[in-house]
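TICKET: design request
STATUS: open
ATTACHED STRUCTURE:
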């Protein structure tokens, strides 16, 4: 786990009382093309630069700044070609209830598109008194818009047990500042590697890992505000040597903003793995602009695990990457189905209401509805939920809600703060819930080129 400067902006969401990470839609309007809802925000950023900084902003460069930001969104790896043989180092801090405070240092040398880039990290987890860290080598060949890439890793690290939500940095911040961390963790020791091909329209990846996977126990129940942690225990991972092959592919449909992806992973005793399972996941997402006044973002995901129902290969439901009204990944199973629809109005509601506010603080409104279910063996030890390739009807949970959104453009142009309220639909559900979070758009798929 690393505390990187890019996630410092998430502190605002934590102070506001957020409980878990969110994802949603990419809003849009002028001067976006008919099939996208992104560039309206880029134009508002260039205008707010002059309004906020006054005479220090160079008005004649507004179009250039806007173009640079647009290019940066379309080519997020452009910086990989700058410099010949750069070297950098950094302190590394982390915190979780299983590792306690984590202290370390990292360094990197080289460029992926040159001779290759080598990253190294050494950490000490003070809770279990364990040494973590490892080394990663990345090498890319080709152009920024069509490249082959190789990635090799060896070491020991702490991972989230939900493999479809692997960003644990925000969870680390919540654990330290407020104790509102809903993630569960496991330790992985060993080697993994992958080779990938990515263009502006599609990507494909094949990977292999040989890792010892172990459960972790809670070692730290304190936090900065001395609040009682919302989750004290840690869901145990199945212990064993996991030798897993995986493939995945994604594509963007030509001419329309629609993304589709599918992945498959296999662990088998035939290669001396301690686990025997097959895991499949598919997702579909779109970002449409309706009349340049509304962004409509439907997303769908389906997953199925056969063989051993190991916790670290199961599927989980809950948190704003899936069902925002469920706290964290509070439901799990060997099958998962989810449908979600977000609708965003790109106009600044404060301006429409004639309320004075800084130009850099445009607030948008949105609404959402979702329905999801998990079935099969329950990782939390509950009764098995009925269903084979599709869940029984009684296992579906639905919700609807509204949100206020602020997209600052920093540290990530595609990220935004989201303040949402979700109402459960149907009986036997948790109460309505407020969340304040920071995340990226289109959470159920990986955007091509990123």
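STATUS: resolved
RESOLUTION: sequence designed for all positions
ATTACHED SEQUENCE:
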């Amino acid at each position: 786990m690393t505390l990187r400067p890019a996630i410092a902006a998430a502190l605002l969401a934590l102070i506001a009382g957020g409980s878990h990470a969110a994802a949603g839609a990419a809003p849009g309007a002028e001067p976006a093309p008919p099939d996208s809802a992104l560039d309206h925000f880029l134009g508002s950023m260039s205008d707010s630069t002059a309004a906020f900084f006054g005479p220090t902003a160079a008005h004649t460069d507004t179009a250039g700044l806007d173009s640079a930001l647009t290019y940066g969104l379309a080519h997020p790896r452009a910086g990989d070609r700058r410099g010949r043989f750069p070297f950098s180092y950094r302190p590394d801090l982390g915190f979780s209830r299983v590792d306690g405070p984590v202290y370390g240092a990292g360094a990197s040398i080289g460029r992926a598109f040159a001779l290759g880039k080598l990253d190294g990290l050494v950490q000490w987890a003070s809770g279990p008194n364990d040494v973590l860290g490892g080394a990663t080598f990345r090498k890319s060949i080709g152009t920024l818009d069509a490249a082959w890439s190789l990635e090799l890793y060896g070491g020991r690290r702490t991972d989230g047990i939900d493999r479809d939500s692997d960003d644990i940095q925000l969870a680390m911040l919540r654990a330290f500042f407020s104790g509102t961390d809903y993630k569960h963790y496991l330790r992985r020791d060993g080697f993994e590697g992958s080779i990938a091909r990515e263009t502006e329209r599609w990507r494909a990846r094949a990977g292999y890992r040989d890792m010892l996977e172990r459960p972790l126990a809670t070692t730290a129940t304190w936090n900065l505000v001395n609040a009682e942690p919302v989750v004290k225990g840690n869901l145990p991972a199945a212990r064993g040597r996991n030798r897993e092959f995986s493939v995945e592919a994604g594509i963007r449909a030509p001419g329309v903003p629609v993304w589709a992806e599918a992945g498959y992973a296999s662990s088998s005793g035939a290669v001396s793995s301690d686990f025997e399972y097959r895991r499949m996941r598919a997702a579909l997402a779109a970002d449409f602009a309706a009349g340049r006044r509304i962004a409509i973002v439907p997303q769908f995901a389906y997953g199925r695990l056969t063989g051993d129902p190991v916790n670290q290969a199961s599927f989980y439901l809950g948190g704003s990457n899936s069902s925002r009204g469920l706290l964290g990944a509070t439901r799990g199973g060997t099958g998962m189905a989810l449908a979600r629809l977000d609708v965003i109005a790109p106009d600044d509601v404060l301006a429409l209401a004639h309320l004075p506010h800084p130009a850099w603080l445009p607030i948008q409104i949105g609404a959402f509805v979702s329905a999801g279910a998990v079935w099969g063996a329950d990782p939390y030890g509950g009764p098995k939920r009925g269903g084979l390739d599709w869940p029984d009807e009684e296992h579906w949970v639905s919700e609807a809600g509204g949100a206020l959104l602020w997209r600052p453009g920093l540290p990530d142009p595609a990220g935004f703060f989201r303040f949402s309220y979700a109402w459960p639909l149907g009986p036997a559900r948790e109460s309505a819930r407020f969340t304040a979070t920071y995340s990226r758009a289109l959470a159920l798929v990986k955007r091509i080129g990123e």
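CLOSING REMARK: Residues 1-66 have pLDDT under 50 and may be disordered. The CA atoms of residues 62 and 68 lie 10 Å apart.
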